[in-house]
Amino acid sequence: MAVNSVRIAAAQMTSINDLATNYATCSRLVKEAALAGAKLVCFPENFSFVGAKDGESLKIAEPLDGPIMKGYCDLARESNMWLSLGGFQERGSDDAHLCNAHVLIDDAGNIRSTYRKMHMFDVDVPGGAVFKESRKEIVATDSPFGRLGLTVCYDLRFPELYQQLRFHHGAEVLLVPAAFTKVTGEAHWEVLLRARAIETQCYVIAAAQAGKHSEKRESFGETLIIDPWGTVIGRLPDRVSTGIAVADIDFSLIKSVRTKMPISQHRKPVEFWKQASV
């Protein structure tokens, strides 16, 4: 590890509709990450629960101060590890609503930041399941791993959010926990992630759900860690296996890439495009 760097891990798993089983998997992966020298573990979307039937996620949804999230706060504190947990089924305003929340917990077990998914996936996938998942708050937070920009899964298709995180909120590392479908993952997952890294000159940590969760649901997998030049620096050997990818966040590389290609100075402000389209 370079002097001006810190090690992180991105976890891949196949969550099911059993809270205890998923917690045990997360706990095991945190231990693996600690042995590898990581200080942050990023988990995929729906890390704690993936429903097998309609309505199951609503039934188990809890507020952030409920026992499910408390268990993960305890895990962070006991392992002395930061955890990126996205997205968590957070209970909404009533029993019929929930938020897809990306929760960042520090190594003392405290919730540092919470981002509620901004772009909701509402698409009928041919031959697949129907997904019906908004909040308007962009979330970036300082950490020992640089300034982190929090997003979730389908956000990846909307570059404006990532541009905002980099150029208006100072992000250096973009977190993209996801559960891409097999069809969309094969077509778009890696190319979109690398594009977000290149156009923002940020590290991208993309923890993914992988494999068959139930008879009706399957995720693409392919957990990736990408550097600010767009190079994949962390990847599991098996696209659908359970495990961790480990890499170092090198702050000197972020500075170097941004200095040699100063796109922050060259990009046009919103006002320019409004005038140019008149």
UniProtKB/TrEMBL annotation:
Organism this protein belongs to: Centaurea solstitialis
Keywords carried by this UniProt record? Hydrolase
GO MF term list: hydrolase activity, acting on carbon-nitrogen (but not peptide) bonds, in linear amides
What protein name applies here? Answer: CN hydrolase domain-containing protein
Q: CN hydrolase domain location, by residue?
A: 6-251
Q: What residue intervals traverse the membrane?
A: none
Family annotation (InterPro entries)? C-N_Hydrolase, C-N_Hydrolase_sf, Nit1/2_C-N_Hydrolase
Q: Does the keyword Signal apply?
A: no
